[in-house]
Amino acid sequence: MDKNKKPTFATVWLSGCSGCHMSFLDLDEALIEIANKVQLVYSPLIDIKEFPEQVTITLVEGAIANEEQLSMIKKVRTRTSILVALGDCAVTGNVTALRNTEIDGDKKVLKRAFIETSDINPQIPNEVSKLLKKVYPLHEKIPVDYYIPGCPPSPENILYFLTELLAEKSPQVEKRTKFG
Amino acid sequence: MTNEPINLTIDNIKVTAKQDTTILEVAKQYGINIPTLCELEGLSSYSGCRLCLVEIRGSTKLFAACTTPVTSGMEITTNSDKLKEYRKITLSLLLSERTHICSVCVANGNCELQDLSNELGVDHVPFEREWTNHTLDSGHNFLVIDRNRCILCTRCIRVCQETEGAHTLDLKNRGKDAQITIDFDALWKNSSSCTSCRKCAKVCPTGAIYVDDDFISKTKDKNIANFLLKRRQL
Fold it and tell me: Which residues of chain A have a CB within 8 Å of the CB of B134?
């Protein structure tokens, strides 16, 4: 098969714990099967810096919590045909969005992480991207094509989803997975 | 006259029912599943969750199956596409109203709200969430109430009043600000009426009221109200 004719595939990691990527890696030997059907073009698992111009399927883990992630996801959306919210953070905000329950939650998490729990030189870094006032699930900022809830979604469900999608069927994943 | 059975149809199935029974009761007898959250056998019906809404031919209005009595010749639909869509919206609104984070909830895996979302195919919440920060009261020796996980089904209030007879729990405020209160807005540890019977934790469909340091799968008991009611009738 002509390698260039395979659908391109990317995974993106926003504000999440990487658990969804771990669950994806837990596909184990099924990864070889998937790898034969797609061309992996961008992922935290490989060393490519810039998100490619045209991607067929992108799995997105994590919620949108800072300005960099917001511009990143907008770029990903314009360059992706099928964008998938993978896991509860991307679908609902999940633990990442718990700071939304506090007034000035963005300032409070920074203070907690860099001042209160710091052993030496407590200071809030200014080199990192500015936190948004609130954390957003993907669909509140960009259109999402498929949702795979779960914290994390099980490898079986990710495999089912990708297998169906790559066979050009429309996966009915919502009855297999649950929040949490 | 009053004891004459009633004939009606539910989802095109011809059924016979006694007078003064509700649509939900008849559906259950015939094995027709209507989703519910606030309804619990052995307690009075509240029709607050709006998940058991059904269509009755000849009316544009929707009816709560748990409180609508059957009448002769009714033609009831319980599972049309319209109802499925409405139930998904209702569940989404319940999920968006408070801070429901399954992954950090004690009831994860033992939650009726979570199970129903799964069953009815709610894979995301299309509304902006409220992210409430209501008070949590863990002052009681072993009972905890986290109002952020409450869906206001009032099962705890009804079981406390109707089965236990204590009426410790009640509602305060209205609309989205409505909350379960203990006595006259007291802390649980100061409650003079609570008998610490745990029935509220047993019937709570979510993780809003739970027993601290106990497996939630052992704590929950949906049949408790019905069981006690039947024992008392013996």
Answer: none
